[in-house]
Amino acid sequence: MADQKLKGRRTMVNLLIFQVVLSASLHVCFAEIGHGQPPTPRNISTVHPTDVNTFGSSLYLSVSGNVYPIGSYSVTVGIGNPPKPFQLDIDTGSDFAWVQCDPCQGCTLPPDRRYKLGKNKYVLCKDPICAAFHPPDPSQCIKNPNQKCSFKIEYADHSSAAGVVVSDSFPLRLVNGSVFQPGLAFGCAYTLKKPDPSAAGNAGVLGLGRSKASISAQLRSMGVSQNIIGHCFNDKGGFLSFGADFVPKSGMTWAPMLRSSSDNHYSLGPADLFFRNKPTGIKGLNVIFDSGSTYTYLNSGAYGSILDLIRKDLIGKPLHEVKDGAFPICWKGRKPFITMCEVQNYFGILAFSFFRSSNIQLQLPVEAYLIVTEQGNVCLGILNGTEIGLGTLNVVGDISMQGKMMVFDNENQRIGWGSADCTRKFG
Fold it and tell me: pLDDT tens for residues 366-393?
């Protein structure tokens, strides 16, 4: 969603512009290509299986990437039989997974790295999962239920992907070494428009929003794992999990999800913004959590106000604003900065206070909203969302979720977070 000339990687908040033509307690992990065995999870879950589904399985994937300079976090999964590796952007801001297919117009991958559709892989309009890929009025599907289920998804940066919905096997490796290969539905993209140049090496998007079309929701419907998504990002990668077994028992802050019939974004409702533990006067922000956004975005009014507060707070400190090609707002010190530790004394903690949830706060220490660039400057990793078409929407992006175990618990309709280094192996 962000302008790539400014920011490294687009925000992948889905604008909800969809067009469609047409149990045992097993610990399980994706049969990843080129990754080692997952850590053995501790028995630490406080989330209990529902009465309907008493499964307790979990999945674990290694994550690669960083906020800067790569500008994305991704996982590699195998699709098909035999499995072929595909690297996908992790995106809680959109609803379903899609990969570049062959042939394709506008795709960034060479033909040999794209997904090749086999026979009898199409999802038809009459298949129940098709409805999760399109809006309430799939007129052409109503006319012909045997037609292929198609999709089009647009993102806020005006990039888009379009194609057909297909189903293929996703190998899942159990801890004991056995493999389960469920058939999961995803988008096979034949057309890309304005693809994100910073994600040119990725095959597509792993959409993990609240739709029934998400991979997590599909696995839940099969009884494989509970629809609980966790991610933990740091400057070297991190991990992505599905199910309850990787949810920490303690050290988490929990708040109820905002239930909205209008979209599938993860939100806790309106938030007020604090700086150095004091109210800023910025109130009632419509905030969503989006792992498909590298940076955090505020609407123009909130952005301007927080920038003024930061500038006033820096008066008398040995920093001055400079131009840096990486970001719009940057500061230079007496000597080039190397680590974030060197700038911590100059900036204060920001916080989103969610008043619908008894003013629970998501605190943003300096490393959660500032970047030390290759030029040795410190730059603001909060950007003006109104300038890129977000309107009044505000986005908590990857930069503000680094160093935290983030959990999107669709079973219990809550979102949680807790400090973590994201490298510690469970066990």
Answer: 999 999 999 999 999 999 999 999 999 9
